[in-house]
Amino acid sequence: MAFSSIVTFFNRRVSFLGKTLALGLLSTSLYAGDILSIANDLNPNEDGLPPPLEKPLDVSVCFFDMQGKNGDFYSKAKDLALIAKRWNVIANIKVFTDERVAAENFKAGQCDAAGISTMRARQFNLFMGSIEAVGGITTYEQLRLLLRILLDPKISQLTITEPYQILGVLPVGGTYIHVRDRMINSVEKAAGKKIAVLDWDKSQTEIVNKIGAHPVPSNLSNFASKFNNGQVDIIVAPALVYRPFELNRGLGETGGIYRLPLTQMTASFVINRAKIKQKLPDLDEKLVAFRTIADKFIDQILTQTYQWIDREEAAIPSKYWLTIDPDNEQKYWNMLKTARIEMTKQGYYDPKMISILKRVRCKTNPERAECSQTDE
Predict the structure, then answer these.
(1) Which stretches of 136-197 are DSSP H helices?
(2) Are residues 150 and 242 in the same domain?
(3) What is the distance between the alpha carbons of residues 207 and 213, in angstroms, rounded to a whole number?
(4) Quick one: which of 197, 214, 241, 313 has the most CB atoms within 10 Å?
(5) Is there a single domain that holds both residue 192 and residue 257?
(6) Distance CA 85, CA 81 (A)
(7) Which domain holds residue 357?
(8) 58 and 201 together in one domain
């Protein structure tokens, strides 16, 4: 069985107010120059943009950056907070190096909002948290179409699980399987190997157990170091972590990265609606009134984000990139589909989102066999 089969076992609207609150989220995917080009188009009362809020809105944000206050993401978040001030939104960013702690502080009411991975945000809203269903969205084109669909006013209520709401997501990049030994090219050869799994996602542990491998509980703060020092043989990660976490140390001369994304990783901006509505009682009216603003900027933001991701992937030495045997391509998709269906039945994914993801895949590639089937 080719390596394509192993990927089966890993998973894992912007309105005016959403835009200003979610500016911190952009820091997960843009360089300073990119931020400046977007910032030039974001000014109150210009190009159809609304005026500032009548009263200052103070928003505390629990923000995850693996490198803490020294991280590039946090630095960009501070810059973007300055842009938010143009609309009288005052963001107080609390940075955390441990994503679990950031999420728990947000859940405990210590912050009004959180900037965290969508996988972690799934606990706050299953619908939006299912965007990263394994094999659900694998290309930029598909993700761009999905984010436009999510601007539909009829979908707004699905993003809410009181008291929480996921205002929006932005790309972090395709997630690729990294192996310390490129000879690990089949499920059989993965048996007995150590694989990093998210310590809070039981489904990943169950899946790794099924293939006879050893799950090693990890989190987004330490999985890279475990790979580099040999505690695990396999990780799944986007290109953006290669440089800051020196994954070349783990890959060495024998490792590789299989260029076949399990999914498109995203970051989510989550709010506590109850806390914000205490400060802004007409929150929902503001969101409805300015939803159409997103249509003006989403393509610009996504294009610049994708350009950044492309640069990060291109910076990885070509010797590490490996390809999957094309003869096993359909087998790969069939297995991913089976995994999605099973995990949806188990409650890990929201069936409404799973249905939307299929619509997106079939819109971009109507010749797919699944498009004539009704099991998803």
Answers:
(1) 140-149, 187-190
(2) no
(3) 9
(4) 197
(5) yes
(6) 6
(7) 176-262+320-366
(8) no
Are 220 and 284 in contact by the 8 Å Cβ rule? The answer is no
pLDDT for res 166? 95
**Residues in contact with 45: Cβ distance below 8 Å, sequence separation at least 6, in sequence order:** 51
Predicted local confidence at residue 11, as pLDDT: 33
Q: What is the pLDDT of residues 114-166, one digit of tens each?
A: 999 998 999 999 999 999 988 899 999 999 999 989 988 889 899 999 999 99
Query: Among 54, 170, 67, which Cα is nearest to 117's?
Result: 170
- Would residue 274 count as lying in a domain? yes
Distance CA 109, CA 120 (A): 17
The answer to the question of residue 11 being in a domain is: yes
346 Cβ contact list (under 8 Å, min separation 6) = 203
Rounded CA-CA distance 208/195 in Å is 7
Q: How many CA atoms lie within 13 A of 42 on its CB side?
A: 26
Total number of residues shown for the chain: 376
Question: Can you point out the beta strands (E) in 76-135?
Answer: 89-96, 113-117
pTM of the model: 0.84
